Structures are given as C-alpha cells and as structure tokens.
Amino acid sequence: MQNTATPTHCPYCALQCGMNLTPAPDGTVVVSERADFPVNRGALCGKGRTSAEVLARNVRLTSPLVRDEAGKLVPASWDEALDRIATGLGRTRAEHGPDAVGVFGGGGLTNEKAYTLGKFARVVLGTSQIDYNGRFCMSSAAAAGIKAFGLDRGLPFPLEDIPKSGCVILVGSNLAETMPPSLRFFTELKENGGTLIVIDPRRTKTAEQADLHLAPRPGTDLALALGLLHLVIAEGRVDEEYVKERTAGWEDARAAAMAHWPEYVERITGVSVPQLREVVQMFCEPESAMVLTARGPEQQSKGTDTVGAWINLCLATGRAGRPRSGYGCLTGQGNGQGGREHGQKADQLPGYRKLDDPAARAHVAEVWGVDPDSLPGPGRSAYELLDALGTDIRSLLLMASNPVVSAPRAAHIEERIRSLDFLAVCDVVLSETAELADVVLPVTQWAEETGTTTNLEGRVLLRRRAITPPDGIRSDLEVLHELAARLGVEKGFPTDPEEVFEELRRASAGGAADYSGITYRRLAEENGVFWPCPAAVEAADADEDALPGGEAPAVHPGTPRLFLDRFATPDGRARFVPVSHRATAEEPDEEYPVLLTTGRVVAQYQSGAQTRRVAELNAAAPGPFVELHPRLAARLGAAEGDPVAVVSRRGRAVAPARITHAIRPDTVFMPFHWPGEGRANTLTNPALDPTSRMPEFKACAVRLEAVER
Ligand code: SF4
C-alpha cells in the first residue's frame, strides 16, 4: 500500500461521513478531513476521528480462537477454526434439520457481506432462521414506509434538502449526539428562516437547538401525531386537492384522527393544547415542511402505527412527494439501509424483494443457480430468533453484532446464547457475545477491505481499502467462501467484493432497491449513486435534478428524490393508514411507577464493542448513568453521582445518578452502550410491534432504589 490518502467512509453510523485514511510510517493510520463528500463536508465526530484506533493490534483480535477442553478460548489455526464451525453447524443441521441452525447479521456489514450472508443461510445451510440487528434499528419506519408509499428508503430526498425546507419536525432523534455533522443541515435551516421543532422526552443537545421543543411522555408519539392531525382537520388546513389526487384511504384516517381530541391528547402526552396548536401553525404555514423520525417513535411496540400517524400528517398536509418536503427516517447504523435491502432480513431477498413472492424467489434463484423451491420461507425476527436459541435453534453463526449488550431483556438473551450447542462469532474485537462463543474468527475492518454501503439517504457509497490487514486476519467474504466449501458448496461464494457486487446488481435488478445500474467505477467517479438505479434507462426515469440541462443520460443518473410524480404503489397513490392511540405494553403502576427510556451518548456507538476500546472516547463517556429529574432524585434521597438501582420486571441495573432538569419528572434515561451491572438492556421490554417485530426499547416501567455505598 502507498503512503497516500485513500478517500473512504466512516465505519460507524448511517451518515457514512467521508474521510481520508493515510498509513503512517509507525504503522498507525491517520484519519483526515475529506471535504468533497457533501454529507459531512470534512466534518467528523469524535467516533469517526478516532476510528483508526480499533485497527491497532493490541485492541483487536489477531488470531482465531477456539474453546478448549478446560472451557477457555485459545488461539487456533484458521483451518482448525473453520473446520470446527463447519462441523458444529453441519452436525446441528444433520441432527435437528436446517432450521435448527440460525444466522444473525449486522447493520454494519457491507452490502456485499449482507448479500452473501443471506445467500449462505438460504443456499448452503438451507435455513429460514436468519435476521439481523437492524431489526432493532429502523424496522418500524421501514414497515410504515412500505404501507404508505409502497417503498422504504430512509430519506426519500438528500440531506441537502433539509435547509431549504420551511419547517422540520424531528421526532425522537438526538442527532446532535448520534450524528453530529448532520446538525449543520438544521442550523442552516434556521439561518434560512425555517423552523425546527424537536419532540423528545428529554431536553437533549438537539432539543436545545429547536425553535420549539415538546417533551411528551415516552411512548405517546402516536397520540401526539393524531392530535396534530385532528387540529389540522379542525382548522381547515388539509390539502384537499393533494389528498384527492395523490392519496387513498383518507376518510378512515380522518375519522380516526377526529376521535383524538386535543384535550384527550394533552392528557395522554403531557403536551398542552396551545403547544399542539403552535406546532400545527409552524408546520402548515410554510410552503414546504418535513417530518423526520428516528428511534424514539420507532422503537415501540406500536412503532409502525406511530410512524404511520406521522406519515398521515404529511399526507393530509400535502407534504410527501413534494420538493423540500415529506417524511423521512434517520436510519442509525452504518449500513442499516443497505443491510435491509440485500437478504439478511428474515423475510426478504436481495433488491428488497419479498421472500414469499413466487416471482421474487424465481428471479433470485435463477441468479443463484438454484431451484426456487429449495429456498426456505420467511424466518423469525431478530428478538424471536434470539429467544429461540437453545431450544428450536441449536447452533448460531453470528457476524458483526453484540446482542449480549444490545438486545432487549439482555440477561435472558445472554442465557439463551449460553444454552446453544454451538456458537461461532466473526468480529474484529472480542465482544461480550464473542466471549461466549465456541469459535471466534478475527475479520478485516473497513479500512482493510473494499465494499459498498448505503447511507441513510439511499446513497450507495464505495468504501476503499486503504491498508493491508495484519497477518492472521481474513475477510467475512473469505470466511463464508471457506465455510460454504466445507459444507459442500464449492461455487457461488466469491471472495472479491466487486465480483459479489456484480452478482448483487443482477439479483437486485427489477426489485424495489434496484442497484443494477451501479458499478464500482461509477461509485468512485460520482461520489455515490442514489438507488433505484436500473441498468436499463427509460426517458421517464431521468432525474432532472441530477442532470441539469435535461439532456438524455447515457446511464441512469440514480434517484436522489423519490415520489415526486408518483408513489411506489400499484396506482401511484400514497395510502393513509387509519391508526389509533394505544398504551405502551408496560405502563407504570404502583410497583414500577417510573418510565425508563434508553438511548445513546455522543462518544459511544451502539453496543460499544469498538468505541469502548478507544481511550479518548472512554475518557469522554466511561460508563453508564441514570439521568433523572431533581424531584425524583429528592424522593429517592440520591445526590449527583450516587449509585441508583433501576429495577424492571426483567432485572436490575445500577449506575450513578445524573440529576438534571432536562428530563421529565416521571421518566429516567439510561444509555445502552455498556455490559455488566449498568447494562440498560437488562431492563428493556421485548414486547414486539405486530408488523415490524421491533422491540419496545423506548418505554418500560421501572422503580428506583437507593444503593448503599
Ligand atoms: Fe462516523 Fe457517524 Fe461520526 Fe460521521 S457522524 S464521523 S459517520 S460516527
């Protein structure tokens, strides 16, 4: 490798910020500004800036590990480790059938890896039991988007449209901490005269930037959206012409909203009627407006309906599918978008095709060279899959995920993982889940391999290999190639990412997420391409915004903006979905009188498996805490920093008190990045949304107990 800067993208969140990587003479890698990528224009948060530290040998895994007879993980050769995995998975399949083998992926995997993992599960193992941690990220927004628009792409417009809008309602997103470089779009929005409304039970760093901050009770965002729609109707602000021309199902949605009187909504949410009216005025007055949701409204047992209610508001006011307007989801994980498009989701095949659609099965089976009837059907969702470990599912292959920390009801999930007959984990570090494995494989990191990701805008990006991995490390694609061969499938699992991408293009062709017109060369030259981007161009597909001047493109330009002419439904109309308020699965009561909500801090990423190993990030955010209101602290007799026990029906977590007026008095907050005594997910409720199967991370009932020092 040359000592020159390689332009690539951050390994962490869904912004996929551009960065340059340069190998230094001392063997380290320097991360530097890359100003040509429009999403971050050179800015990086602390996680991205320090990301190269996880490449160091003393932080990462450098040898396969196998569990010895004494029960310890010890170094082993690649052949021994791969043989053990093939034997472990193969034995389970032979003794209990293919569905007794599970596969669990991650939203950090590149498109090529997610695609290959899905193919490996269905073609090599023959199992239906595959899902991934992205189910815990954006699945409710995806389900609601498909219901309403016929298509789910996180943002149907580029981030650069945000500053040009008249008003943005940000629901349950603390992007100032989760993706700090994105804050500039909202600062520019305000500089341009637009308004920002933030809805969050906590006065977060993002809420501090808002023109108006509403702090509803956790779990009541659905009622809030219904109350706003009620007022839109009552105040005569419905865009009747748009509703008539571009939507279907209005009357039922209208009737449902009219049943949610503002005073009733005020009682449910704690948001006053005057504040509701203020939101309606701010949202409806400008020519353009957006609603953007994140995990707050989505990680609920009614997440799909909640997002549906916000989409209804956008439809009734004529916002969706119009310039600088509409609904979007701020996907969280690095490749959370691409990860859900290419087949590691329990119910989907590449190209965002449905696994139970005969035409989709036939298309993908042809690309894969297998009989469509040999492909298994849909499997369990992520939590249900993890909950079945040790019972129906006896062996598990896990890549790029750490459910011991990140799954809801985590102590129970840890117990299920411990009860497996066999567990193999591929990761870059020895995560808390890898510590429980029979075999651990050390795999390459983002800087050491080429591959594509798809960011939260639906922009497909090329991550380039900048350095050579240390000896003893292999890529996930090599692992799957080797395992396929050992399990009797010699062909169809290439190790070259571009070769995989070429197959993915064919598999996705004609699907909702069509990548067939995208090549590595284009990605390198164009700094990313928005899907859908079919190989065959029809004049009507040409995007005027992408090609100023209107000349006929030689290739499809990609689709930065969706739905401007029609939605992706059979008749081109968006669908209103009639929804009504319902309570969280676990409301506070005498025994558990307080609501717990969970989330993130700026210096840690997801389960913290990587970022907890970076000194600067650890110094900034060394451990969990319980954020609570002074009134609640006084009742408990707790002072700042005192250990507080938070107890739910699923367990107990202890962390220092952080006392602040920035949270509702009926709610406590814990970040979820840490294992052990302060593990927030010990407490969370796995009640699932009936459509998306999203667990209710954002609201459960707890009680607080003082802890003796
Ligand atoms: Fe990386 Fe996200 Fe930070 Fe950008 S905001 S540097 S993508 S973690």
UniProtKB/TrEMBL annotation:
InterPro entries according to UniProt: Asp_de-COase-like_dom_sf, MoPterin_dinucl-bd_dom, Mopterin_OxRdtase, Mopterin_OxRdtase_4Fe-4S_dom, Prok_molybdopt-oxidoreductase
Keyword Metal-binding listed: yes
Residues of the 4Fe-4S Mo/W bis-MGD-type domain: 3-59
Alphabetical list of Pfam families matching this protein: Molybdop_Fe4S4, Molybdopterin, Molydop_binding
Top-rank lineage group of the source organism: Bacteria
Keywords recorded for this protein, A-Z: 4Fe-4S, Iron, Iron-sulfur, Metal-binding
Signal peptide, first to last residue: none
UniProt protein name: Molybdopterin oxidoreductase family protein
Organism name: Streptomyces tibetensis
